[in-house]
Specification:
The chain is mainly beta. Strands 1, 2, 4, 7 and 9 form a five-stranded antiparallel beta sheet that branches. Strands 3-8-5-6 form a four-stranded antiparallel beta sheet, with no helix packed on it.
């Protein structure tokens, strides 16, 4: 036994923990701490992302209303896991004004990106959007963005299913404000 092994066993002994009987190269065998290691490993968290197809255009007009966004299908959440959090991410490649004037989301409106289970459920806010954003010059195209959800939606997104999204009550200063190449991602974190 090396000095390092002896010191390690002494530390474990001082802590009141019996060292594992090391019989294979992986360092884990029956007895000792192997049960504690397996229990600890059984509680690992896993995060996985599911993405929608890309929607070519989302058109915001001067009339507040719900604008459809692409849906996301989740398949593969293991049975028996505990969901820790579910967050939405929205990506869009470009913002374009077609009104001929500087454009943005109307000040004073309260838009949000919302999610719901497609065949049932109720739309739930997933991403808070501030008004007077998506600013673009007259007849210009600006770079898009990535919006990370700031709301845990695991109460609505809680199993393998298809989830619908909408841009709730969004309206623009001028007709029209276009979001190009829009995609939605659901990021699900669970614990076994």
């Amino acid at each position: 036994m090396t000095l390092f092994e002896r010191r390690g066993r002494q530390i474990l002994s001082d802590l009141g923990t019996r060292p594992a009987d090391v019989t294979d190269p992986s360092g884990v065998s029956s007895g000792g701490d192997s049960e504690a290691i397996q229990t600890s490993l059984g509680r690992l968290r896993t995060t996985q992302r599911w993405k929608s197809d890309v929607q070519a255009i989302v058109t915001l007009t001067t009339t507040a209303g719900d604008k459809s966004l692409p849906s996301v299908t989740i398949a593969g959440i293991p049975a028996g896991v505990t969901l820790i959090k579910v967050e939405a991410i929205m990506l869009f490649r470009a913002i374009e004004d077609t009104s001929g004037s500087a454009n943005e989301i109307e000040a004073g409106c309260t838009p949000a990106v919302q999610v719901k289970e497609t065949s049932a459920g109720t739309y739930t806010d997933a991403i808070t959007v501030i008004d007077a954003t998506l600013v673009v010059g007259a007849s210009k195209v600006a770079n898009g963005s990535v919006w990370f959800g700031n709301i845990d939606v695991k109460a609505e997104v809680n199993e393998d299913d298809t989830y619908a999204f909408q841009f709730d009550q969004a309206d623009a200063v001028g007709n029209n404000l276009l979001l190009r190449d829009v995609q939605i991602i659901l990021e699900v974190t669970w614990q076994v």
